[in-house]
# Entry
Amino acid sequence: MRYVAFHYYLSDYRGDLKKFLDNACVSLNARWDQNSEEIKNIIDQFEKAVQTTINIFGEKNFSRLWLPESATYRSQFNRAILDVMVFYFCDDLMRAAAETNKEQVEEAFKSLCRTAVDRFKNAVLISTNTKQSTYDRFHLWGQALSEVLDINFNIPQMEDNRIIFKGLR
# Structure
């Protein structure tokens, strides 16, 4: 549900995850009769995004944080990292580019954990549900991907204390 809510409503996120997910459910239920095929397709893209993440990160996969001080991945599941991985890898072109550049994508993640350690670590470990942390993790991972993938895509921006996102393409 987090994935679907962020996919459709990231720009509406205000820092209250429960309310955000509840509102997304209400909205998607109201749209179901007219948009059920589109919503089912988005869910199918989630499954492909998860598989891409597993293909790139292997057993370390999308739920682990790179710990530069020990040069290892943290072993605990992390929903915030899942959010950003599937958010970008749900797109066919992003998925294909990432799979073609697996080593560079994994290194971009490690580099992000090393260079933006305070901001990114806070966004995925400490205050994960705040608007700022949500923005930080989506924006920082998008920037890291943009440096290693040779495709154009939109990255969430912060304007007037609001997350602005118009879709990946």
